[in-house]
Design goal:
mainly beta; Maltoporin, Chain A; two-stranded antiparallel ribbon; 22 strands; 312 residues; 2 helices; 16-stranded antiparallel β-sheet
Length: 312
């Protein structure tokens, strides 16, 4: 059996569903883009596959996927005077494979390793001669990412539903082929999320969410120099790029909902309490005038929100 799906808006994207066997499903696809930065068309193939090793409440499924994805440059990167004409899109290869296991048709467990390679990343040129000639950006960067994701999901067949997910990963990049890899600015080693919801009856429900995320890397200042012309201190960055990390983010959010039906109108009022235990997650750093001392800048405190939503 073969079915096709196509995007109804530009850029065109086509996905086929091919089932040569009852337990085997292929989903080849392709995305076609016109890249205005290079005035040419690109064709990005993608393919996925699922194979059921067993059926029924204890179903075991193997799956895999591969695809190419592109990201066009921002106007500030490719349009003068701030950008460089001729800078083209960066692109990446995504590969994943994994196993899905159902337990009693109620609990579903997924384990999925993944790997990515990034090509033609746009970087700001460090070549003074090139900068003097108007070459501010160039496609010389590359990167890689790899890790594994776990997901345990309680299928909503009763009043209780929820899931727990955890990702262990590492993402690295370099600006030029002759450089060593360093961490991406948004590398996150650990990502943990747990959600739960309980239907209490009579339109009442309660839920909660817990999140834990490793802090983002940054390049610390290791000292400063006096700029006598400006009458101020100028910071000196560590030669080891992104060698420090912000403290981890974690938060517990709780929610209570009450739903009413008035004819065709459905009204829902809710109370959201974000960051219940008032953890001040680090959002950045503040430095003293001479950059000798620093302190973390905290995020939002505990935040209660009351709302009303109506739907017809």
């Amino acid at each position: 059996m073969c079915t096709a799906r196509a995007a109804s808006h530009a850029p065109p994207y086509t996905l086929l569903e091919v089932r040569p066997l009852r337990q085997l499903l292929f989903t080849p696809g392709v995305r076609v883009d016109y890249m205005s930065d290079t005035a040419r068309w690109t064709v990005d193939p993608r393919v996925g596959a699922r194979f059921d090793l067993s059926e029924g409440p204890g179903r075991t499924t193997l799956k895999a996927a591969y695809g190419i994805y592109r990201q066009a440059p921002d106007p500030s990167e490719s349009i003068a005077p701030f950008g460089t004409a001729g800078v083209h899109s960066s692109w990446a290869e995504h590969l994943s494979f994994g196993v899905e296991q159902n337990f009693g048709d109620v609990v579903e467990l997924t384990v999925e390793p993944f790997a990515k390679r990034f090509h033609d990343i746009i970087v700001h040129t460090s070549d003074e001669t090139g900068a003097a000639n108007g070459v501010l950006n160039e496609n010389t960067g590359s990167g890689r990412a790899f890790g594994v994701e776990w997901l345990a999901r309680w299928v909503a067949r009763s009043r209780v539903s929820g899931f727990v997910s955890y990702t262990l990963s590492r993402s690295e990049r370099r600006d030029h082929p002759d450089e060593a890899y360093h961490l991406f600015e948004f590398d996150q080693t650990h990502i943990l999320s747990a959600n739960a919801r309980v239907e209490l009856g009579r339109g009442w429900s309660v839920g909660g969410r817990f999140r834990y995320v490793t802090g983002s890397p940054y390049t610390p200042y290791v000292g400063s120099a006096v700029d006598y012309d400006a009458g101020a201190y100028a910071p000196i960055e560590s030669p080891s790029r992104n060698s420090a990390r912000s403290s981890a983010f974690h938060s517990l959010d709780l929610r209570v909902d009450k739903e009413w039906h008035i004819g065709a109108l459905r009204l829902t009022t809710y109370l959201d309490v974000n960051n219940v235990y008032n953890h001040q997650s680090e959002e950045g750093r503040s430095y003293s005038f001479d950059y000798r001392n620093s302190k973390a800048l905290g995020g939002l405190p505990i935040l209660p929100i009351v709302g009303l939503r109506g739907e017809l």
